[in-house]
Design brief:
With 336 residues, this protein is an alpha/beta fold. Helix content is 40%, strand content 18%. A 5-stranded mixed β-sheet has the order 3-2-1-4-5, with helices on both faces. A 5-stranded mixed β-sheet has the order 8-7-6-9-10. α5 packs across α7 and α7 runs parallel beside α8. The C terminus is likely disordered.
């Protein structure tokens, strides 16, 4: 039972082939739109055009790497929400075109839900109920997950997402977009206690990072009248990273304490952050609860997680394609 999945919600064009029976990823191709770095953020119109240019090649590459033909695919899965409208339409229309051509069904998948269940790409032994934490450039949300079709949103950010905070502060420090990876890299040689940045106190299972961004901006403008010395940047990065991850862990600890889950699953682009991973693993040891975090290629936007969720949710005997609509959200936008 083979599933060809497509993901194009923002600035990655991805296609993957999943064995729906064994849940084995036979291929996962991701084409990242690196040119957005010159604009300091994702430009929706340019992202859509880039998806149009890349999607045929990416799908062909996914089929080739999986050593299968289009005719051998039993069903298609595609991201339909949330995301940039034009970008979503490219993937959705391409998938529907393949479905019409082959007479096979196509199934809509929510991008955030796919991240939520992407821990199963790392381990199929995840036990329900689990606390899921989706942390990315556009989302910071906690969930209580009871099955592949039932979950509750416990809380989310009141303003900016953690990934956006990383990227915006990285821009203040002179790093290109996306900047979170640069902060993580420099933090390895910095002192997380060198500077004191605020860890917001908000409602239970709630997060806020706008105050942190303002605090860092004010600190930089008052402390450095000219360029920021390179030898100081590691300490700033480590201190910023500590403030962001401490707030994330505070909310996660609250959820674990209240709901006593059997597993903790952290996913989304920010789950690749080394400090967050280390602190989450420490939490797992303290509570004796397994912590599952996907490996790097499954933290970023990818089609493997789209196909995987489809394989758990649907049976592929339907002779028709499910009708669905594309919905948008404010994922990532250019910096002002």
């Amino acid at each position: 039972m083979l599933i060809l999945a497509i993901e194009s919600s923002c600035d990655e064009t991805s296609a993957a082939v999943i064995d729906g029976s064994t849940k084995i990823v036979k291929s996962n191709i991701v084409s990242s739109q690196l040119f957005h770095s010159q604009y300091g953020g994702v430009i929706p119109e340019l992202a859509s055009r880039a998806h149009v240019e890349a999607i045929s090649y990416v799908v062909e590459k996914a089929l080739a790497n999986a050593e299968c033909s289009l005719e051998s695919i039993d069903a298609f899965a595609v991201t339909t929400q949330p995301g940039l409208p034009g970008a979503l339409l490219v993937g959705a229309n391409f998938a529907k075109g393949l479905a019409v051509k082959t007479g096979k069904p196509v199934f809509p998948i929510n991008h955030i839900e796919a991240h939520l269940y992407s821990g199963f790409l790392e381990s199929q032994d995840i036990q329900f109920p689990f606390v899921g934490f989706v942390v990315s450039g556009g989302h910071t949300s906690l969930f209580l997950v009871e099955s592949f079709t039932q979950y509750t949103v416990l809380g989310s950010t009141r303003d900016d997402a953690a990934g956006e905070a990383f990227d915006k502060i990285a821009s203040m420090l002179g790093f290109p977009y996306p900047g979170g990876i640069y902060i993580d890299k420099l933090s390895a040689t910095g002192d997380p206690d060198a500077f004191s940045f605020p860890v917001a106190t908000v409602g239970e299972f709630q997060f806020s990072f706008s105050g942190l961004k303002t605090s860092v901006r004010n600190f930089l403008s008052k402390t450095f009248t000219q360029e920021i010395p390179e030898n100081i940047k590691p300490d700033i990065c480590a201190s910023v990273q500590n403030a962001i991850t401490e707030q994330l862990l505070k909310g996660l600890k609250q959820a674990v304490s209240v709901y006593k889950p059997k597993t903790i699953v952290i996913s989304g682009g920010v789950s690749a952050n080394s400090s967050l991973r280390a602190k989450a693993e420490q939490l797992g040891k303290q509570t004796n609860i397994p912590v599952i975090i996907p490996k790097g290629e499954y933290c970023i936007d990818n089609a493997a997680m789209i196909g995987l969720l489809a394989s758990y949710r649907y049976t592929f005997t339907s002779p028709y394609s499910i009708k669905f609509s594309v919905k948008s959200s404010s994922l990532r936008s250019p910096r002002k």
